[in-house]
Each structure stands twice: as C-alpha cells, then as structure tokens.
Amino acid sequence: MSGADGAGGADGAGDVGGLGEAARRGAGEFTATVIVDAPAGRVFAGLTAWERQSDWIPLTTVRVVEGDGGEGSLIEAVTTLGPAVLRDEMRVVRVDAPYEIGVVHCGPLLRGPGVLRCTPLARDRTQVVWHEWFHLPPGAAGQVAWPLLWPGSKASLTLALKRFARLVEQGRLP
Q1: Which of 15, 103, 112, 159 yields a CA-CA distance of 20 to 30 A from 3?
Q2: What digits encode the pLDDT tens for the residues 34-60?
Q3: From CA 134, how far away is CA 74, in angstroms rounded?
C-alpha cells in the first residue's frame, strides 16, 4: 500500500484493508500544518499516543477500541458539545514511523481517509501536516453543509495542532 502517491494508501484512492468506499477520498478536503520544535521521532510518538489526543483536541475523548494503536487498530474519538455527540471511528491503515500515519474514518457519519505526516527539518524541528478527505452527504445537503462546516473544521484542526506542538515542545507529550 502506498500512502504518499495516492495509489491505494490512506490518503489515496484504493480499497484499503477491505474498507471499501470509506477508503476513497471524499470531496470534503482540508489540511492543517504546524512546525514543532522537536525531532520527528518525538513528534510521531506524540501523534500515536492516541488516548493523549484528548489533551490537545478540544471536547474530544480518544481511545483505542481494537489493537495496540498500530496498523489495523480501531480508534474511537468522541466529541461532545452540550447535548451534541459526534462519534468518529478510524481504522489505522498505515504506520511508517516516524514519518506517516494513515487512517480511514469508517463510522456511520464520518467517512474517508486521513493522513498525518511528519517531515524532519533542520535543527531538530518537524513539520506536521494533517490532511483529511471526508465524504459529504449526498445532494443539496452536502453542497450546502460543506461551505458552512469547512472554515470551523480547518480552524479547530489548526488550533489543535498548535496545542499539540506546545505540549510536545514542553515535554508533556508523549
């Protein structure tokens, strides 16, 4: 499976691990990026400390449901805001430490591939890129919902990555 070239990897277009349509890129695409003042290995370890994602993703509790957190594992992220609850299930489909983690969102509501990439930079810094391709609801609902949801999703993803960077730089993650 190849993640970086889109030929069946977590960010790509193929059926990954029997996940069918959920593994194909959706039209709801967004990216967030942050530079972390820490080496790639430490940054990667922080990203794959799944339960600790609750420390940097607001209003969200993350847990490993199946497996050890590595390839093949099922991860659940539950975001709660008042009475609203959003449950996100992800299958880890690629782990290329310390460079890339690929997931496929495979729950009933959130579906589509995502990838977290760590690129080592000079002076022990790392660029983290978080990219998601969510499937949109069909028809007019998806066409109307995406322009309304996209700015908030991108902003909260960017804020979460900035919070993640601070925790890693302070030595509080992983």
Answers
A1: 159
A2: 999 999 999 999 999 999 999 999 899
A3: 18
